[in-house]
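Researcher: Next sequence.
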Amino acid sequence: MGGNETIDDYILEACTKRFMKVARIIVDVSQELGQPPHDENGLAIEKRIRSLIEAGKLEGAGDLSRWRFSEIRLTSTLEK
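Model: Next structure:
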């Protein structure tokens, strides 16, 4: 799996100003990295999503550990 900066770049590229399911972002980023989206790969991406939320680059809604039931989007400063 790529480094944190690479993963962060893929996450931010996959997100838009509209809320999107965390599961979709994890699958999209996993495909870009050439890795399966489950197990430790998905958890590593989830960890980076949480870091980007803490850094104010993403906004989250719902319980992020429940990928199919939570959503993220770019903050207004990073909108596409």
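Model: The mean pLDDT is 92. The domain at 4-78 is CATH 1.10.10.10 (Arc Repressor Mutant, subunit A).
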